[in-house]
Amino acid sequence: MSTPTETSSREASRLEPGSFRDPESRVFYAEGGVYRTLSQQGLEDFELLAASKLFERFTAAGRLVATQLLDKSGDLPEGLVKASAGVLRHERIPFVSYAYEWPFSMLKDAALLQLDLTLAALEEDMILKDSTPYNVQFKGSAPVFVDIGSFERYREGEPWVGYRQFCMLYLYPLLLQAVKEVSYHPFLRGAIDGIEPAQMRGLMSGRDRLRKGHYLHVFLHAKLEQRHGDRGKEVKAEVKQAGFKKELIVANVRRLRKLVERLEWNPPQDAWVEYGECNSYTSDDARHKDELLHEVCVSQPWELTWDLGANNGRYSRIAARGSRSVIAVDADQGPTELLYRKLRQEGDEQILTLTMNLADPSPGLGWRGLERKALPERGSPDLVLALALIHHLSIAANVPVKEFVDWLASLDTSLVIEFPTREDPMVEKLVAPKREGLPPDYERESFERVLARAFDVERRERLESGTRLLYFARPKGTGSPIDLTAPEG
Amino acid sequence: MDLLAYLDPGSGSMILQILAGGLAAVAVVAKLYWGRLLAFLRIRKPED
Lengths: 489, 48
Hints:
Order of helices and strands of chain B: HH
Low-confidence stretches of chain B: none
Radius of gyration of chain B: 13 Å
Strand order of the largest sheet of chain A: 12-11-10-13-14-16-15
Strand content of chain A: 15-25%
Structural class of chain B: mainly alpha
Number of strands of chain A: 16
Structural class of chain A: alpha/beta
Oligomer: heterodimer
Largest sheet of chain B: none
Mean pLDDT of chain B: 77
Helix content of chain A: 25-40%
Largest interface: A-B, 53 and 34 residues
Low-confidence stretches of chain A: 1-11
Radius of gyration of chain A: 25 Å
Number of strands of chain B: 0
């Protein structure tokens, strides 16, 4: 399992700490590139894959990460050649993301890619040794399978080792969302191996047995696991003796594909409404905001823009005009789902949609907390958009304004931030149910003081409705700050 | 031939895969349960 991306290229070659589960291949970052070292067995499996039709076909379609086998006698980054039979170089994915951050359709598309690759591999007498969404990454809205080390020769008589994992990390989470309308994100974030068959059965009702595929993959699966859990050795022998064959896997994968393809989840109605035209802007405000954003976004080439509180992606799209890649983060799955669908339809490869609550962001997970990384460890932004966001964090999540601004400053990034004043209708709406009223630090003058201390603020503009201010700022010591105590320009 | 996978396929999951094989699986299922019957009647050792 591995994730071909990297965050910096300062060291000669660094092991990806999340890539230790498969002993036949490990991922390294070196000199700005992503490398994979292979054992002798791993090299043989890769040569089989490289000679296959599927390798060419899926790579050409961008569904398999572009990969080349390097000449070991050639000029390779230090530390990669020793003790490995072969070295691969992978195309770099701009930003790593995880299944517990994907809206429904992203996980579904990743599942379909996993199944398509499994079918194509079986056709050429290969198979994938695992089935985890952590082997899929997204280039914008395009899913790319990145774990080249997952392909191996199919051994006659053996079952599909990755089937149980497919259920736990793809099928059950999708069923949970589609059938039970329960978000799978906390489940996947809570357990790196996903939802167990017995757990899933507990989450379903008796009536769900009648739904297509549910009895087999959930109820019977849990029952058999309970009955045979400790009989690994005997079962293995029994299955082989009974004449298990590849055709059984093919039949199962085809059925799973049909089942997954039919699954659907639609966001609740209010998400659609909000998605159409978010919040309380007058058209003058919206135009002014668009213009300022456009000017900032195309003023220089940006590498990575984070649009925090992205909603319908309006500003992510503006950011994409001047940024190599953009991540559009929203706490609500509804708008990220709708934005992803739209981007996928357009074939976008720049904007990555993520569902994440910034007041409770993805932590480091897995062994030593290093297998999955927290957001800032996957690549720092050079531009952050925090539009219509600070009042949600301050009022709804009680995050102190200074804490939030200091966190943004710790990312060492330029910033466009919007501050709705105490009179703004959205602020009034958020504060209405709270007994204490507005937090005392939610106040324009103190916000500006905190902002000017953490950043070099270069621009400040008031939107036409009068209750919203926009600021453009650069990291401290890199810009030419204006005087915020002077009247607005 | 042994399973060399680094992942545990799960005993229940292996049996399920036979049952999920549809038409292709009929003969295999029959053989699986025939083997179990023979083992039950002590005609064949279960781990042969």
